[in-house]
Amino acid sequence: MVKEPPYVPPSPQDKETGVSSKDITISQDPSISARLYLPKLNQPHHQKLPILIYFHGGGFCIESAFSSDHQRYLNSLVSQAQVVAVSVEYRLAPEHLLPIAYEDSWAALQWVASHFIDDNVANKEPWLINHGDFNRVFLGGDSAGANIVHNIALRAGVEALHGGVRITGAFLTHPFFWGLKPVGSEYTAEREKGLAYSIWNLVYPSAPGGIDNPMINPFSPGAPSLAGLGCNYICCPKASYQCLASQHA
User: Choosing a second label site near 222 at 20 to 30 A (CA), which of 20, 79, 158, 169?
Assistant: First the structure.
């Protein structure tokens, strides 16, 4: 049994970083929420900052934007990068099977973009309006969240975001990719019995092509070209001992 880190409340001002956070509702139906982060500002009324939309990991079935681990990480990231961050709480499997997490994440991205020119945006967020620079929008995520970044960045290459907003760049930290054919240093024996295979079948049992579906295997036949990514820059760091490392080397 996997023990998840505890959920923690947002903080008006983190003691270590000075970052403020709060929880907001993006959509009531479907239920999509997020934790917003704002760094300590030198010019509180005029300072415009890059916007980061972040997606947590956890194999699409555990973890949360409200967990202590992600709260600590986002506080540090927001403080050092000086960004306004939207950490998305998408719905999880097995109660909500894929592709629901992808749809929730796309809806969250569109909600952020809608603040650019839409005066009638639902649940309008002052931190985004007052401090967000919509010419500098970034995506980021770890593991399953990085997989989400990959897939919605591809979608942004073929579907317009509200207001003509463009994604400047994205980072995918040890993304959850896999496939039946091993890549690089991946193990070769009984791949269909591995953890990644089991998780994918749990969270997306109806996936066309199974573990070689393009959403988890970007090198599978028929997968969209990476040239179609809807962002200008992409960074893909990996953990040395992460079991999925070679799929994104």
Answer: 169
Convert the pLDDT of each residue in 49-96 to its tens digit: 999 999 999 999 999 999 999 999 999 999 999 999 999 999 999 999
Q: Helix 100-114 to helix 144-156 angle, to the nearest 10 degrees?
A: 60
DSSP SS3 for 77: helix
Question: For the chain, which residues make up each domain, given as ranges?
Answer: 20-248
Paired tokens of 206: 């109806």
| CA 125/CA 111 separation, integer angstroms | 10
175, 208, 205: which is closest to 183 by C-alpha? 175
Fold topology of 20-248: Rossmann fold (3.40.50)
pTM above 0.70, yes or no: yes
Structure tokens at 197: 């295979």
State the burial class of residue 169 (Cβ atoms within 10 Å of its Cβ: 0-12, 13-18, 19+).
middle
Q: Give 29: exposed, middle or buried? Use CB within 10 Å, 0-12, 13-18, 19+.
A: exposed
Q: Maximum CA pair distance of the chain?
A: 58
pLDDT digits (tens, 9 = 90+) for 105-119: 999 999 999 999 877
The closest of 80, 72, 97, 93 to 8, measured between CA atoms, is 72
Distance between CA atoms of 7 and 143, rounded to whole angstroms?
19
Whether the CB-CB separation of 164 and 226 falls below 8 Å is answered with no
Answer yes or no: are the C-beta atoms of 110 and 163 closer than 8 Å.
no
